[in-house]
Each structure stands twice: as structure tokens, then as C-alpha cells.
Design a protein that fits this description.
Helix content: 25-40%
Radius of gyration: 23 Å
Number of strands: 21
Number of helices: 13
Structural class: alpha/beta
Shape: globular
Largest sheet: 9 strands, mixed
């Protein structure tokens, strides 16, 4: 469910006409629905209520300050992958003691910073990383809370760039080696507090079976580690997917009734709770995309139409620097006119102004036959949209807006050209 729908021939976010935002702020602009975000977070909590569960929002999905403030206000924890993300959370008023720190390449400076701030736990990915944390914690006179990410070798059936749970991926420790590594930690690393176990098999999963398979493989290990080392928690990661194709329609309850095969937060929880409840461990879940993905649209303006022998191109003012998902891993986003069209469609490529052949948002797509000057909404843009954007081609970062009912506010003003080169130095 989300809060985008047509009303009186114009696309709205909650009770705000997106055309009004485009006129006031310009394009490209990311528009987020506060209600969608808070509803999704609440849905996870309600569905997982039978467990001692805690939701740690995956910051990399969307790390804008206002979004992090909203998460902190709702009492969420945070799944972070850099010292910069930890700094962002603290700057936004979040609690560092609710942060789990993942990632394969933590630097010594980042480890020290996280220890100083009292994070909940490091999710570690290799023996060498554990030994580095042990050494650093010892030099600081501290014990570092750690868990190790186990790789259960389960195929998540998602795009190869966002699968993380097989033994061909860079993430985690092979399930065949995890018990020996914990024994080594206990025997040889005195400055570590073995606090938990972690796994994450991939992103944008649309069926529950891979989660079930991974949990069934790892649950006996979690039970054993509770007995041997007194671990407190098991983080089962995130990865619950969202609707990209069919996004606009999925804002209505009727759509979900007509698609019972679609995995929901509730069906995900129902499948995993019976496997997790007997363990008596705190369960951490780390959703990102599922909380913010369908909570945003990117507004963009059609600049030109170009018709050639083979194709028609609709050229927009948003490029791959604004949303890189289609170019990076064939990501799909619905594209709708803010002013509703009826029946006038065309097969076209929707392309941006960046000087790359890969700068497209849709290819061979049947879309509304919009004309230059019309505003489009690229849906499902909340996750890995702005957070992966860049200033490639010296294009300023887009603006961001948060909608709350019938009110809205700019939460990030559009970057200026002067700000793009801030920090650069000319020759002496």
C-alpha cells in the first residue's frame, strides 16, 4: 500500500497535487509520503509482534536527514554500512546504540568511531575483520560487541547484483566455516563480546521461500551459539521486495485482493515466525526498500520528443545520475503523467540528458504520449533513488520534498552549481 493516486485527473501524494510541487520546486524532485513510510514500519512491527523483534531500517536505501529523523521519532533502529551513515544518524537525532554496523570493508577510523559512539553491534564479514576489531577494541580498553554474517548459500532468485547469500558473493562467512570461526573468536579474541549472529541473502525478494530456506539452514546454528556463547540476537537481514510493475495500482486494497500470490509483510512474517519463535532469541530485521521504496516518486519534465526510423524518444530532465537503477541493474519504474491521460499512448524510450547510451529510465515502453512541458512521475523511487544519485556531467543533485497529509516541505533544496565544486581547489 502507498499514498499515490489520481484525483480529479491529477496525480496526488496523500492530499497534495504533485503538479503544485513541480510548479513550486521544479524538476527533477523526489517526493516522499510520510504516511506510507510510517505505515510500512508499523506493519513490520505488528506482523512480527509474536517475536521479540526489532526493526532496524537499512539506511543505505534512503539516508536523507528528514527520513532518518522520521525513523528515529518512530523508535526504529538502524542498519548502517559506513561511518558516514552513523554520523548521519547521530546528526538526525538517532540513537547510535540502536545501530548495527555491517559491510565488508570497515576502516580502523570507522571502527574506532563506532566504538566511541556505543553502537549495538558490528556485523562482521571475515576473520581478519574480527581480529582488527579485537585489536582496536583492546587498544581502547573496550570490548566490542560483534556478530558474524553467515552466508547460508541460498539463491534468493533476484538480480545478480543484489543477491548476497550464495558462496559466490563477497558477503559473509561460508556456513561450513561459521562454527569454527565462533570457536576461534571465543578462544583467541578476548576483546570481543560475542553478541549475536547475522545473515542477509539479498534484496528485492518477491517470494517467501528463500527466507524460509535460509532460516531453516541457519536456525540450528543460532540455537547452538545461544547455548555455547550466550548470543542475544539473530539478525535475519532484510530483502522483502516491493511492487515496481503495477506500483500505482497497488495503492488500493482491491489490487492486493486480486493478487493473493504477492508476498506481503504479513505473509512473510507468518512463514518465518514458527521457525524463529522456539529459539528464544531477539530477532532483528533490516528492511530498507520495503519501508521507503513505494513511498516516493521522482517528478521529471518532458523536454523534447525525437522520432527516428527505429524509435521514438521522450527526453526528460532527469538522468541516470538522478536514478541509476535502470542502467545499473535493469531496474523497472512505472512512469505516469502527473496530468492524467486517457487512451493516448505511444511506445517509446524515456531517456535523460546524460551523455551515455545507458541513460534511460524506460525502453520500448508503452507510456502516455506526453508532450514537451508535461510533468511525469517516476514511481517507486524512494529506495536507491536519491541515495545513489550523483553529480555526473556536473548535474546538480535533485530536490527532495516530504508530504504529510495536505502539507509539504522541502527537505533538501536543489543543489547549486557552486555547491557541486565546493571543496575543489584550483592550481596554484
Amino acid at each position: 500500500m502507498h499514498s499515490f493516486a489520481y484525483r480529479n485527473e491529477s496525480l496526488h501524494c496523500e492530499n497534495v497535487n504533485l503538479a503544485d510541487i513541480a510548479r513550486a520546486v521544479g524538476t527533477p524532485t523526489f517526493v516522499y509520503s510520510k504516511k506510507t513510510i510510517t505505515d510500512n514500519l508499523a506493519a513490520f512491527r505488528k506482523a512480527l509482534a509474536p517475536l521479540d523483534a526489532h526493526v532496524a531500517y537499512a539506511v543505505k536505501a534512503c539516508s536523507s536527514k528528514a527520513i532518518l529523523q522520521l525513523m528515529a521519532q518512530q523508535g526504529a533502529g538502524f542498519d548502517i554500512v559506513s561511518g558516514g551513515e552513523l554520523w548521519r544518524i547521530i546528526n538526525a537525532g538517532g540513537d547510535p546504540t540502536l545501530c548495527t554496523y555491517a559491510g565488508v570493508g570497515k576502516t580502523e577510523a570507522e571502527i574506532r568511531y563506532a566504538l566511541e559512539k556505543g553502537i549495538y553491534c558490528f556485523n562482521c564479514e571475515s576473520e581478519e575483520e574480527l581480529r582488527a576489531i579485537d585489536r582496536i577494541a583492546g587498544s581502547m580498553g573496550m570490548k566490542a560487541p560483534v556478530a558474524v554474517r553467515v552466508n547460508p548459500n541460498v539463491d534468493a532468485h533476484t538480480h545478480k547484483y543484489i543477491t548476497t547469500g550464495t558462496n559466490e558473493n563477497k558477503f559473509g562467512v561460508d556456513i561450513t566455516r561459521i562454527e569454527q570461526l565462533y570457536a576461534t573468536m571465543a578462544a583467541e579474541m578476548p576483546n570481543l563480546h560475542i553478541k549475536g549472529l547475522q545473515m542477509h541473502i539479498g534484496s528485492q525478494l518477491t517470494e517467501v521461500q528463500p527466507f524460509v530456506m535460509a532460516i531453516e539452514k541457519v536456525a540450528p546454528i543460532a540455537k547452538k551459539f545461544k547455548e555455547l556463547y550466550g548470543i542475544e540476537f539473530w539478525s535475519i537481514g532484510g530483502g522483502v521486495g516491493i511492487i515496481y510493475d503495477g506500483c500505482l495500482a497497488s495503492g488500493s486494497p482491491e489490487w492486493w485482493q486480486q493478487h493473493p500470490e504477492q508476498m506481503t509483510i504479513e505473509s512473510y512474517a507468518a512463514a518465518i515466525i514458527p521457525l524463529l519463535q522456539p529459539l528464544g532469541l531477539r530477532i532483528l530485521v533490516e528492511p530498507g526498500r520495503r519501508i521507503v521504496g513505494n513511498a516516493a516518486a521522482m517528478l521529471t519534465t518532458c523536454l523534447y520528443e525525437k522520432k527516428g526510423e527505429a524509435k521514438c524518444f521522450k527526453i526528460i530532465d532527469a538522468g541516470m545520475n538522478d536514478i541509476i537503477r535502470p542502467a545499473l541493474y535493469e531496474g523497472y519504474h512505472e512512469i505516469w503523467p502527473v496530468q492524467q491521460h486517457h487512451g493516448d499512448t505511444i511506445t517509446a524510450d524515456v531517456v535523460g540528458p546524460v551523455c551515455e547510451s545507458g541513460d534511460f529510465q524506460a525502453q520500448n515502453r508503452e507510456i502516455a504520449d506526453v508532450k514537451p512541458g508535461e510533468v511525469l512521475a517516476e514511481m517507486s523511487a524512494g529506495a536507491y533513488g536519491f541515495s545513489m544519485s550523483s553529480t555526473y556531467n556536473s548535474r546538480p543533485l535533485a530536490a527532495e520534498v516530504l508530504v504529510d497529509g495536505d502539507k509539504w516541505q522541502v527537505i533538501r533544496r536543489r543543489q547549486t552549481l557552486e555547491e557541486i565544486i565546493c571543496g575543489e581547489e584550483g592550481l596554484d
